[in-house]
Amino acid sequence: MTPSDLDRRAELTIWPKGAPARAAEGRPFATLREALAVAIAAMESGEAQPWIITEAGDILSPRWIQANSRARAPH
Q: Is there a contact between 52 and 71 (Cβ–Cβ < 8 Å)?
């Protein structure tokens, strides 16, 4: 992933933590940076597990999101 990827579209899906599997719809964001900000806020609540699909097709897990949370900061 490159820094320019942060300014490309992404889709965020937030799954409830510890709940049985169910269908969930993704929410589109204009940039990966915006999706990361919402995902991190959801994780901080302790009740959610966000997954992001980037415009390039990469799937970012909750662990990746948490480990790379500094990338959401604006330049």
A: no
